[in-house]
Amino acid sequence: MLSANLTQTAILGRRLQLAYVVRNIDDAMAFWTKVLKVGPFVVIENSRGGRIGAVQRGVDFTIAFAYFGDVQIELIHQSNDAPSSYKEFLDAGREGLHHLAF
């Protein structure tokens, strides 16, 4: 059990990034910009990457970055059917927070 005076921040450091997997990156950016007042976003289209273990999987995706204070917001949209954690996340019926970085 952790000491009562240790906080999450003291253990992990401060949160640096929140990454969201989205089905439609344009709709997601519009929501974040108009509703949550986060933006502007820098968009990188037609990026290729993705590994599962040591195997390169050829994942095509678009990513968008913005800041909310000191925290980076990353939106990720996969545009092909290559195996990836993003595709598994969406195929399981999820959309939203996928990972975070400290």
User: What is the CATH class name?
Assistant: Alpha Beta
Oligomeric assembly: single chain
Name the helicity range. 10-25%
For the biggest β-sheet, the strand order reads 2-3-4-1-5
What would you note in describing this structure?
The protein has 3 helices and 5 strands. The chain is of the alpha+beta class. The chain has a single domain, classed as 2,3-Dihydroxybiphenyl 1,2-Dioxygenase, domain 1 (Roll). The protein has a 5-stranded mixed beta sheet with strand order 2-3-4-1-5. A hairpin with a 2-residue loop joins strand 2 and strand 3. The chain is globular.
Which SSEs are present, and which pair or pack?
Blueprint: H1 8-12, E1 17-21, H2 25-34, E2 42-52, E3 55-68, E4 71-78, H3 85-91, E5 96-101
Parallel strand pairs: 1-4
Antiparallel strand pairs: 1-5, 2-3, 3-4
